[in-house]
Structure prediction request, 89 residues.
Amino acid sequence: MAERPLRFTAHARTVMEERGIAETWVESAMADPLLIEPDPTQPGALRAFAAVPAYGNRVLRVVYYDEPDARRIITVFFDRGARNKGLTT
Prediction:
């Protein structure tokens, strides 16, 4: 089964540019996340977490909606609290 395409909201694009987050890092996180969990603040949204080797293995959090035709990326940031989830070394 083919992966659904990623669709970025304007907010996601803006914060990626501001924070220096490459689209390829988001694509990698979505293709092979370390963890996926429901977002407790946004009903229906999910959080995907993945380490980014090109950025010192910091953990990227991608918040998205899993829609029938695409995955809509809402926001993206490096998660300082990822250590609490056991996602860093």
